């Protein structure tokens, strides 16, 4: 049984970042990264469907400490995976990783001030202990994507594929394809498959807001020509985060103005005769759900040249030949792609106990969106739903290192978020508030609660988080420290 100061779970974007910050800010700490899969990359290694790419620019999805230098700011999956591999090797993080370690349980002992972490490795249980546990395992089920129950699916004579389990060398040349869904995955798949397929239909129950942007950031390119690489990257990152937050805030305060701008952009791209009202006008306000990015307007190009089309309707049933719609229309097809979303999970589906009592995270309060009331020496990394994931992952790692260094400086071994007297009776909010996306709403009852004041909040606001993580005192009365470190 090996002991580490910190066990990090997950070797994707968050886990690699955790390794970097632990090495930089806590150089005396020992750590290991346990990864359930056989390689690094998480999302960017798992998803292999055509066209897989970021829906955030890489100057903000990239790490603060490693500039993104490729020309394309909206990058494809293989390029992002290469960047993650480069990061792991450049900073010596790969040597800290142990692959094929699927963490299944974690038990906290207050008496020993440590976690006991169990992982399955080819059917064998491996056990580790650590003083601090940092969950960087993402937020969705890697084993299965979400597929709603659709009557008659089993009777379909063609092929049914979920993007999360895309077959290797899958041939769809000259095939009729229906992609069920209207989110980022669907809008990536449709133009990517349209080049080879006979025709691709995006079948959606309801529309999503879409915005077209170039995949190359010309300002970033100009800055790289005249400034040192790190300076140019920092300025581009500042520019893009500022713009992201500005647009999001304006969407909240003046939704009708943003709505008109978005719809005008689609109408201009598809022409005045296209039915934007039916196919690209949602019933909700912008950023009530995530905005979909269309790099270089590729979806609009596929629609205009007749290689793709959008149908907005509900499925009545599926039969051997295709899909019958509630309107009475039908779509005959050879392939159905169920781009119907993800199954979210809480902290990697790990079974947690604290002093023998199982932890039900739905009964806890979130502490700054990274820790949980009553659960000691634990943090989890969860990015933004309205900006790039890595912006928040970086801040989370910085905070965890501040916390560990504070414990060293004060000689304490335990840090536990606990409600103070002034926190009792807080107004209760969902962990992700004012966000109506189905993949979130399906599981919000499994996540911790959010309060109405700091630090019991998860604001999804980069500017506010920077103050919350970097400037707020570590010893704020809510994060309570105990245990005395035995000094030799």
Automatic annotation (TrEMBL):
Keywords: FAD, Flavoprotein, Monooxygenase, NADP, Oxidoreductase. The keyword Transcription regulation does not apply. Its cofactor is FAD. One of its GO terms (molecular function) is N,N-dimethylaniline monooxygenase activity. This is Unannotated protein. It comes from freshwater metagenome. The lineage of its organism: unclassified sequences, metagenomes, ecological metagenomes.
